[in-house]
Structures are given as C-alpha cells and as structure tokens.
Amino acid sequence: MKKNIGTADRFVRVMIGVIAIILGLSGILEGNLKWIALGVGAVMIIVASVQFCPFYTLFGINTCKVKAKK
C-alpha cells in the first residue's frame, strides 16, 4: 500500500474520528446512529494511522507529499 494521505488530511481524519467516537460513547446519539458514529470514527482513525485510503486510490487522489526519486 502506497501512502496517499498527507499530514493535514491525517489531522482532519483523526479529529473527525475522535469527535465521532465521543458522540457515540457519550450517549448523545442512540440506536443505529450511535453504531454508525462509532464505526465511522474507528475507520477514520485507522485510515489516518496507516496513511492509506482505498477511495483515494479509486479516484486517483493523493494528498501525500512524497519526494520523487532521482
């Protein structure tokens, strides 16, 4: 897996993931919405930690600034 998530993108994903998990665990959300928030939060944090997004690969997006090899 080639890295395709940059630093700013990782930061945003971690923040969204943490907020989603907090909402899911705090009792603000109930029922299916609670589980969706927990799932989204977990996926966001996992994707940010491995720096690879499969959807970015499908759409040809790359926010990672990688130095080109000479």
Order of helices and strands: HHH
Q: Quickly count the helices.
A: 3
C-alpha geometry: elongated
Largest sheet: none
Q: How many distinct folded domains?
A: 1
Q: How many strand elements? A: 0
Rounded to the nearest angstrom, the radius of gyration is 14 Å
Percent range of helical residues: 55-70%
Beta-strand content: under 5%
Low-confidence stretches: none
Gap between N and C termini: 21 Å
Structural class: mainly alpha
Summed over residues and divided by their number, the pLDDT gives a mean of 91
How does this structure look, described?
This is Inner membrane protein YgaP-like transmembrane domain-containing protein. Residues 1-67 form the Inner membrane protein YgaP-like transmembrane domain. InterPro entries: YgaP-like_TM. The chain crosses the membrane at residues 12-29, 35-61. It holds the Pfam family YgaP-like_TM. The protein is mainly alpha-helical. It has one domain (5-57). It has 3 helices and no strands. It has helices spanning 7-26, 32-50, 54-59. Helix 1 (7-26) packs antiparallel against helix 2 (32-50). The longest helix is centred in the first third of the chain and has 20 residues, at 7-26. It is elongated.
Quick overview of this protein structure:
This protein has 3 helices and no strands. It has helices at residues 7-26, 32-50, 54-59.
Helix and strand arrangement:
Blueprint: H1 7-26, H2 32-50, H3 54-59
Protein name: Inner membrane protein YgaP-like transmembrane domain-containing protein
Transmembrane segments: 12-29, 35-61
Keywords: Membrane, Transmembrane, Transmembrane helix
